[in-house]
Hints:
single chain; 137 residues; mainly alpha; elongated
Amino acid sequence: MTAACVLALSVTLAGSGCSILFPNTCEDLQELSENVHGLGQLNLLQTGTDGLDSQLEKIERSWNKVLRSAGSQFGPELRRLQSAVDALTATLRAGTSGSTGLGEVIPQLQQEVAAVEDAWKSLTTVVSSELSDCDLG
């Protein structure tokens, strides 16, 4: 296949929203989706910091996979999501550090969980326009 044919195929696939150029991106984003949605379903009063911390670790693992597979494809949206997760993690750490009680930070944690979900919605909007065959639910 000539270089011109490869270039034409790449442009055609990229324009069609086909995820074949980034074969693991969709799968990795779907895993991240499950973990982000799991965060929103936590009952902080029941799971406490252990449940939240566990979910944040899952998000971080799947996050790293997305960064490897997507590269800079969804840069602004991924940075917004990372910023929201970082803020949530920092508040969680503050609430378990001893100087601040968890009860004092629960309202802030709930707001930050909502910010993570909002950032996720922004990412899914862009993904659905660029990778139309990738269903993130």
